[in-house]
């Protein structure tokens, strides 16, 4: 991967702030955006800004854009059809709307499962739907040693009463990746549906909804180099079978029956460019499909991200005052994203992020809405953790600067 060339595509990475190159280790909160995405959004707004269904060029262009955006998302997720991609404002809004529709036929005595590994968008939406129907909510714990999901606990909670399992593909706080294929198999064996939150996972690895056999999978383009936009893949039978809350005249055809109001067409233009940006990392020529290119690109970025993780974890061992929550085993790098949850002895997370922020090293502190996880780890009431979130555009040199600042701080 030609990192120098790749980084040049990102205006944010090339800028100087008060004479210094900023270091963006805030990716899990939202990644930086390459120029082709900015150009695509600006071109849509500048030349074609319109709506669907008009008898004129810019509206026709908008219809085409929407179809292209669905195809780009379908390629990214390996959806069998672009009609199985639903767009919306963000993952949270979409998940609330899906939770309303999916829970319509739940009854008292039914149960659902959420997890302590999840962002609360994939917890509260289901909890509130369950509350409305008198349905019991079971919560899977994490293994505190490595922050992986406790699958034995999950198995003990599953039963024929379970209607739905809501689970994250990877923790947005510790980076631990869950074995979704296995979780889906276990859930399906008792007839439960599975709603996967792939928001944190999506920028790091290739998703294959068909291989996972999940019922629903949600992600957000602003986490994978695109604009603020949410999307959900769902099995066709569910998009046709469940009934969404929807304005009357537009409620029959999928996937439109799941989309409310006017979409952010400029964001859809940005999404296409973001997917193409990732595909182009492969450097494969035009004879390959976009899906093939994405597979090759993610293989490259994963390798680089694993190298970043290895470097980070190897250096971190020399800092006894910093505690890591999550996988630290160098033989298990494939099971994590390069996202690191840390606490510093004698310092609050906010003090650390403020110190780094003053040097234009951007890191987040807090609980990142992973409240169950932070509670189980005992950090919810102490400011959460400091999150160092690497993306494929980050470099070893940036991590060196980060550790220099850790030295200064400690
Ligand atoms: C793992 C995870 N899930 C869900 C969300 C919510 O996504 P959105 O902001 O698109 O609603 C986030 C946002 O940070 C996240 O990190």
Automatic annotation (TrEMBL):
<dbReference type="Pfam" id="PF00266">
    <property type="entry name" value="Aminotran_5"/>
</dbReference>
<dbReference type="InterPro" id="IPR015424">
    <property type="entry name" value="PyrdxlP-dep_Trfase"/>
</dbReference>
<protein>
    <submittedName>
        <fullName>Cysteine desulfurase-like protein</fullName>
    </submittedName>
</protein>
<dbReference type="InterPro" id="IPR011340">
    <property type="entry name" value="Cys_dSase-rel"/>
</dbReference>
<keyword id="KW-0663">Pyridoxal phosphate</keyword>
<dbReference type="InterPro" id="IPR015421">
    <property type="entry name" value="PyrdxlP-dep_Trfase_major"/>
</dbReference>
<dbReference type="InterPro" id="IPR000192">
    <property type="entry name" value="Aminotrans_V_dom"/>
</dbReference>
<dbReference type="InterPro" id="IPR015422">
    <property type="entry name" value="PyrdxlP-dep_Trfase_small"/>
</dbReference>
<feature type="domain" description="Aminotransferase class V">
    <location>
        <begin position="23"/>
        <end position="402"/>
    </location>
</feature>
């Amino acid at each position: 991967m030609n990192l120098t060339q790749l980084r040049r595509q990102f205006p944010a990475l090339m800028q100087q702030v008060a004479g210094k190159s900023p270091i963006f280790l805030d990716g899990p909160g939202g990644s930086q955006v390459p120029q082709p995405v900015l150009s695509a959004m600006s071109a849509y707004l500048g030349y074609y800004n319109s709506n669907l269904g008009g008898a004129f060029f810019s509206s026709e262009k908008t219809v085409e854009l929407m179809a292209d955006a669905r195809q780009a998302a379908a390629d990214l997720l390996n959806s069998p059809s672009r009609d199985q991609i639903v767009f919306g404002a963000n993952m949270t809004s979409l998940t609330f709307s899906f939770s309303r529709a999916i829970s319509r036929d739940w009854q008292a005595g039914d149960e659902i499962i959420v997890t302590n590994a999840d962002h609360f968008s994939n917890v509260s939406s289901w909890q509130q739907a369950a509350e409305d129907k008198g349905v019991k909510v079971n919560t899977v714990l994490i293994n505190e040693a490595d922050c992986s999901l406790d699958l034995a606990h999950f198995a003990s909670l599953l039963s024929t009463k379970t209607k739905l399992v809501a689970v994250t593909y990877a923790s947005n706080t510790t980076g631990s990746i869950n074995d979704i294929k296995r979780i889906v198999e276990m859930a399906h064996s008792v007839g439960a549906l599975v709603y996967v939150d792939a928001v944190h996972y999506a920028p790091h690895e290739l998703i294959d909804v068909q291989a996972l056999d999940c019922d629903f999978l949600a992600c957000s383009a602003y986490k994978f180099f695109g604009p603020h936009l949410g999307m959900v893949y769902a099995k066709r039978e569910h998009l046709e079978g469940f009934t969404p809350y929807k304005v009357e005249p537009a409620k029959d055809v999928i996937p439109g029956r799941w989309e409310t109001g006017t979409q952010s067409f400029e964001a859809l233009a940005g999404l296409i460019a973001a997917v193409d940006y990732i595909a182009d990392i492969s450097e494969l020529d035009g004879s390959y499909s976009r899906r093939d290119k994405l597979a090759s690109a993610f293989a490259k970025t994963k390798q680089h991200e694993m190298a970043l993780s290895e470097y980070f974890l190897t250096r971190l061992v020399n800092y006894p005052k910093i505690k890591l929550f999550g996988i630290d085993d160098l033989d298990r790098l494939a099971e994590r994203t390069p996202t690191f949850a840390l606490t510093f002895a004698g310092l609050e997370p906010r003090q650390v992020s403020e110190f780094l922020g003053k040097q234009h090293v951007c890191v987040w502190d807090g609980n990142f809405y992973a409240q169950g996880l932070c509670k189980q780890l005992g950090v919810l009431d102490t400011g959460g953790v400091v999150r160092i979130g690497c993306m494929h555009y980050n470099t070893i040199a940036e991590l060196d600067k980060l550790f220099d600042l850790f030295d200064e701080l400690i």
